[in-house]
Structures are given as C-alpha cells and as structure tokens.
Amino acid sequence: MAPKPKIRELLQESACSHNKSRSGACNAPKPGATTGGCAFEGAQITLFPFADAAHLVHGPITCLGASWETRLTGTSWPGRDLTQMGFTTGISTNDVVFGGEEKLRSAIDHIVHHYAPEAVFVYSTCVTAMIGDDIDSVCRKATEAHGLPVVPVHAPGFVGSKNLGSRLAGEAVLSQLIGTREPEKQTPFDINLIGEYNVTGDMWQYTPLLEELGIRLLSTLSGDGRVASIRTAHRARLNVLVCAKSLVSLPRQMQERYGIPFISVSFYGKRDTSASILAIAEALGDAELVQRARALIAREETLLEQKLEPYRKIFQGKKAVLNTGGNKSWSIASALQDLGLEVVATSVKKATEEDRYKARQYLGEQGVLMTEPGQEQARIIDQTGADLLLAGGRSLFTAIKKRIAFVDVNQEKKKSYGAYLGLLNLAEDLNNALHNPVFKNVARRAPWEK
Amino acid sequence: MGEVIRRIDKPLQVNPFRLSQPMGAALAFLGIDGCMPLMHGGMGCTSFTKVFLTRHFCEPIAIQTTAVTDVTAVLDGGDGSIVEAVKNITAKVTPSLIGLHSTGLTETKGDDLRGIASQIDYPMVYVHSPDYEGGLESGWGKTTCALIEQLVAPCQQGRRNKVVLLPHVSLTPIEVEKLKEFIAGFGFEVQALPDLSTSLDGHLGEKQSALSSGGITVEAIRELADAGLILSVGDSMRLSAEALLKKNATLCHRHFPHLQGLEATDQLAACLLEFSHRELPPAGVIRWRKRLQDTLLDCHFALGQTRVLLVGEPDFLSGAAQLLREAGSQIRLVLSSVDSPQLDRLTADTVLVGDLEEAEKRQQDFDLVVGNFHTEALARRFGKGLVLRGFPNWEVVGNQLRNDQLYEGGSAFLCEVANAAERSRHGH
Ligand code: SF4
Q1: B73 and A126: CB-CB below 8 Å?
Q2: Which of B365, B46, B17 is nearest to A85 (CA)?
C-alpha cells in the first residue's frame, strides 16, 4: 500500500499555470474570513460519481450528514446507484476515546456483505485523522479479506481546500487503482475523461458525439464512472482534463508514468465545445479522425444555429452582468456570447490569474472585470443599462431594485447547460427570466409605504 | 405502546438522517438579531452547514469558521484561531453577538472555550457542541441553555403578563410565529428564544446582510428573566427552562412535549386561560378548534387505514405521531435520529433510533412516509406515499409557510397526509 501522499508536494503542483501566484501562505484559510469547502468535500466530489463503489466516510455525522444526496451526478450503472447513498461510521464519544478502527473494519464488512460493491472508498476526516486511526492498515486487510479494492482516501478537511481534496482523491486513484487491471480490448482512440462529474448529465451532452467519431471512453474520473474501468486507465491514448485545474496533477503523473499525453478542454458553450472536440481529435493524431471531427462540428453547429434562431432575436442587444466565481466567470460568459448576449461585466474576485486572463479574452477590452462585484454590480447595471443579472441568491435584491431580470447561477443545477444541446437549455432559461414579470412585481411598494 | 429500540448493533449508518450538534447550535444563534455564529473547527463543517441551511430556508445564512488546519490543530489550543477569527469578523461587520460553538475536531483537541471567550473583549456566548454526540436538537437546546446562562440577568420578580417561549428546533419559522400569536391572543407579551420566525423568513430587501437579521435581540435576551411564565416546547428545551428558572425563582414553568393535535392544544389553551385569568380564548381560537374537530372526522377514514412511517427529530416525532393518532392513523414505525425521553411516550408499534436502512428493511410495514428529503428516494423505491417534513427539505419550496401546530396547523397537516395517502393508494 502506498504511503500517504505528500500534501506539500501537491500544493506545489507544477503543471498548474495559476500556481505561480499562489505560494504556501495563501493556502492557509483565514479564520473568520473563509468560505468554501474542505478537502474532504473535494475528495467526495471527485470520487462519489463512481456508482459501482461504496463511499464510506469515517468520521462523525457532520461530514456525511450534510453532504450526501446533494449532487445530481447521473449514472447509467444498472445496479443500485451508490452515488445517492450515504455510508458513515458516524463515530461516537466512545470511538474518540478508544479509536475507531474496529468499527471501521466491521463497517466495511457490512457494506461488502449487503451491497456487493466493486470497491469501497474509505474517507478519513478531521476527527479520525486527529485520533490517529490507522485507516491504511484496516483497508489493506479488508482488501485481502474481501478480494476487492478498499481504497483509503486521505483528505481530512483540515488539510486544506476543496481543490486540494480533489488532488488527494486523484492521488488515491492513481496509487491504488489505475494500472491494476488490463482492458478487455484496446482501440487507437481510447481516452480517459478526467474531472468531469456528469452533474445533471453534462457529459452525456457530448460523449455521444465523441463516440460517433469512434473515440472510446476507456474510463472516467469519475462522471458516470466505474471502478472496474478506471483500473484500466493506464492503457488510454489520451487524457482529457475537463474544466478541472484541481486534478491536473493526475494526468501529469500519468504522462510521466505511462507516457499518456493530456489536454485541457471545456464543454461550455458552442465555441468551447467545438474547439474541444477538435482538440481531442487532433491530439489523437489521426488525420481522418480530424476530418470526421470537423464535419461533425459543422453539422452540429448548423443544427444548433437553426434551433437558436428564435432566441437570437430576443437576445439581440441584450446586456448581461455576470457575478460568479471560478471558471464560471468566463465559461458562462462564453456561453452567453454564443447565444448573442453582450456580457458587459464579470466577476474576477478570488479568480486565479488564468481565470482572469480568460475572462479578459472573452469580454474584450470594453468588458469590466469586477474585483468587488457586491459593490460594483449595481453601478455597472446603471451605467451599461444591463437587462440581466446572473449571480448568486444574495444578489437577487440588486436585480429587483434595478428592476431587471435575474438568474441564480450558483443554485444547484437541475438541468445541463453543457455542450451544444445544453446551450438550448440555457437559452430557454434566460428567455424565461427575461420575460418573467416577477422581478418588477415584487418591487411594488406597499400602499402604506412612503 | 410498542417496543422501543434505542440501540441497533451496527458499526455504521447507512443513509443517515441524523444531523450534527454544531448545525443545531448554529441554527439557534441564527435566531438572534445581528448574531454571527462562529463554528470552531475545520472550514468544511461550516461550509456544509451554510449550504445546507441556505438550501433549506432559501435565505442567506450568516456563519463563519475558525478554519482550524492540520497545523493549527496541533500547535494552537484554539485561542489563536478564535481570537484571529473574531478580529477578522469585527473588521468587516459589527455583530451584536458572536456565537462560538465547537465541533468534534476541536473537542477532541480539548480546547477551553470558556477560558478563551473570557479573554476576548467582545459580546460572545460559547457552547460545546461536538458532532460525535447528540444531534440537531441537542445542539439547539444546549445553545439556548448557554444563551440563558451566559446572558440573562438574574432578577427576583417578574412581569406576570410576559411569557417566554422556548421552541424546539423542528418548529418552522411560521410555526413559531403562530405559537407567539396564539399566546399573545390571551393578552400576553411573548418573547421566543431562539426566534427563527422573524429571522429566517420573509426577508426581501435584506438579502445582502452579512449578519442574521430579525430574531430576538440580545437586549431582550438579557431581560428574559423579567417574566411570569416559561413555556417550553419539546423535551430538548427542558434544560433551557431550568436554566431560566435559576435566574428567577418566582417564574412559573409549564412544559409541553409538543403542541400538535387537539389534546395538546387544549392543554396549552387551558394553561393560558389559567395564567391570564380569562374565561374564554379569542373567538378565532374557538373557531379553529371546531375546524380541527371537523377535520379529524373528515380525515379519519383515509388515515384510519394508513400505516405510517415517521422519520425525524424526537420532538417533531412526538407531535406528529400524536396528531396522526388522534385521527386514527396506524403508526407502525418511528425512526428517530437520536435517543430522547420522548420515545417512551410515542404511540407506535416500533420506535427505533437508527438510519434509513432500517426503514428499508421494514418497508412492508408501512404505506406512507412522513420525513425529510432523504426519505423521498425510499418512498419512490417502494411506491409509498410521502409527506415531506423536517431537515433537510431541499426540493420543495414553502418550508417556511407550512404550519402543523395547534388547532389551525393540525387541520392543514391532517388533510395533507390524508390526501397523500389516498393518492398513493390509487397509485399516483
Ligand atoms: S472540516 Fe473536517 S470535520 Fe468538518 S466536514 Fe470537513 S472533514 Fe468533516
């Protein structure tokens, strides 16, 4: 069994262009001024979509109690969908005093016995890391006893952010699963999708297109994923990293270890989707495949344009202000532009240099990159005459005061905005928001208000 | 009375619905005007809590974390990160109170909250709420207790017409408001502690606020002992009532395990008549009692043939079970998140402290589920009727508007359950 990953090393990730500006100190969260999830949450997000595996959280109820069944990560797994189930040792005072290893061992037995998963992921959390439970040893013995991978995931919340947790999860997969089984067959166009979690079925918007081109998904980490296939991931011809900087260390290490090249892509909006499909084809290095890809892109874009036609008129001349974080600050901007809206401002608060750069690329010189969106957005709406505010729930009242339409972009998504067809969903939602009189209605003054 | 199983011999929880003590503590602090709950632990606990409550209430949730890391967990006795957190919070906002509450991590370390709080020159209440024991109810109850012990000024006598209401955590904002109105209808001035009725409901216009808004003020908490009567609702609030009695020995105290159904509401009305020296309640109350009687009869046929599974926090379970029993429902199985004296009082075939795997095992015993969002998958899987109640309830809107208490809320609840039972019997 591999030793625990070296957290400091992961923090110094080299293949990460935004890393230069993020040296050690900023990685420590500031007490009293921190938002965002812990490393455990990041690990959970990264691995939970493996529907054939059970996910056992070794800790008190907090860690799992508030986090299971929170994300709609679609799966085509025909068995019982373990991504929508929660397993926790739910340790008690007694375990804190005497240690939780025995309980963990029996919990794994219970799961294997009752739910027959392909693998069990065991997540350590702050308390169980603090009391020093030897999870590695429990997992090693369980692996031997049950004859299936029981994988320890060392991402207790207090070691850092969600992003770090994702990396640690990637690390666990690399050291424990990848390369432990051979695929039944191989094709020259086998790829791994990394960092796509298939939330609301996002990946199903584009994987049929890849398949149509003859590109085969050998494995995914971990949207609609299977443990059985990630074990064969070392035989892929290409690693495709989807919108996930946090996982970049994994393909980099796979490149070193197995010589698999990797590319980063995004399937948000028309331009990015087309560029990504082409990039995958080109990276696989087959001239005919590239040609087929170009033809498919042309076909899909034409089809999309036809379907978008009725929306074009509605969105023409409409201006939007976007206030959200991370890669959404430019990826949603790009999608909005694809629909014909003008994005006059986007938020770059807490954005990495790379996100900032991309945001500038998409918005052009005229666009405003807001560093304090909470204070700036109202003024920018006035100055630009924006018609639409896309932001988190906290900004709703700004839209109401300004009497413009509002879309909550941070809400847990219910439908996919991914790839070509997702753009239609986005168009429909924006159209509905723009025509909804509710924002003006609720702004009515009560008869007794001056 | 059926069997009560307090402990299942099982090394894990499968599909758990128990929620954590720190979350209950945070929620109680949110019932105070201008408060900043400060969770002492890793940042993830706070983040999960914030997202969870935001989705449940559809309101912005003010909460901060001391963001303990693997490094500070070892080097710092808590003083460092707490002092730092208070400094960073007060640099941006001016809370009326900082509500310091611990988690499993910092309790394992053994941080001395009391010592640290006493060194900090800022209004602060601290509470020990490790998540490896108790649950949502106890976190809320302990925090209410701490607020009383640490803030309320002792006094020798009180005002006869002032009532202190101590509501348990499962009462929704509208339910607390309805209880306050009901009590006020008998001529009393009412203060609720905590008071979510004004803080986590109906807040258009204040969404930007970084602190809790609405709720009981810190000033009003200090003066709570200057009352005549304490009404505690739910067994998790008993300790709080006792803490308040210590502040003023002349206070009267009446405890209600719950306020659902005809009998419990009658008892509250009788109590309020006694203390207000009135002969009759307000006319509206009399009207609603008749409506509830009528509803009990209207629903008895559908409910009498319905076998129910109830899932949730003990104080909620005891009320819901009683109300449904009054109309003849067969309470086959009650699943409680934690142990409580309430469980012995429940009229049910089986009462069990456990997880949803237990419900799955016994799915042949019931036709309809009353429980939180996590029971939806269970109900769908086995084709059971479903009425959503409790934390969390993410996928439906209107959690704040649902009132199941007293004569009025009882009528609405019974109709909702009876309709759901009929619908599921006809296969919808
Ligand atoms: S910070 Fe630690 S205790 Fe809190 S949720 Fe994350 S892993 Fe669990």
Answers
A1: yes
A2: B17
Evaluate if residue A270 carries a pLDDT over 70. Answer: yes
- Phi, psi (rounded to 5 degrees) for B312: 160, -160
Count Cβ atoms below 10 Å from residue B206 Cβ, excluding itself: 13
For chains A and B, count residue pairs whose Cβ atoms are closer than 8 Å: 207
Asked if B209 is an interface residue toward chain A (Cβ–Cβ < 8 A), one would say no
- Phi (first) and psi of residue B32, to 5 degrees: -120, 135
Distance separating alpha carbons of residues B379 and B363, to the nearest angstrom: 9
Instruction: List, as ranges, residues 288-317 from A with C-beta within 8 Å of B.
Output: none
d(CA B160, CA B274): 12
Q: Which residue has the higher pLDDT, B415 or A411?
A: B415
User: Which residue of chain B has the CA closest to A408?
Assistant: B58
pLDDT score recorded for residue B427: 76
The answer to whether the CB atoms of A91 and B132 lie below 8 A apart is yes
Tell me how far the alpha carbon of residue B97 lies from the centroid of ligand 1, in angstroms: 25
CB distance B20–A38 less than 8 Å? no
Nearest CB to B14 within list A85, A158, A374? A85
**Residue B40: pLDDT above 60?**
yes
Q: Please answer yes or no on whether B15 and A157 come within 8 Å at the CB atom.
A: no
Strand (E) or helix (H) holding A293: helix A287-315
Q: Is the pTM of this model over 0.90?
A: yes
Per-residue buried b or exposed e for B154-180, using 16+ beta carbons within 10 Å of the residue's own CB: ebeebeeebbbbbbbbbbbbbbbbbbb
Domains with residue ranges and CATH for chain A:
7-17+33-176 (3.40.50.1980), 190-300 (3.40.50.12380), 310-441 (3.40.50.12380)
As for ligand 1, residues whose beta carbon falls within 6 Å of it are A 38, 40, 59, 62-63, 125-126, 156-158; B 41-42, 44-45, 48, 105
ipTM for the predicted complex comes to 0.94
**Domains within chain B, CATH numbers bracketed:** 3-8+285-425 (3.40.50.1980), 21-134 (3.40.50.1980), 159-282 (3.40.50.1980)
Pairing of strands A319-323, A388-391: parallel
* The ligand 1 atom nearest the CA atom of A155: 7
Identify whether the C-beta of residue B112 lies closer than 8 Å to the C-beta of residue B77.
Answer: yes
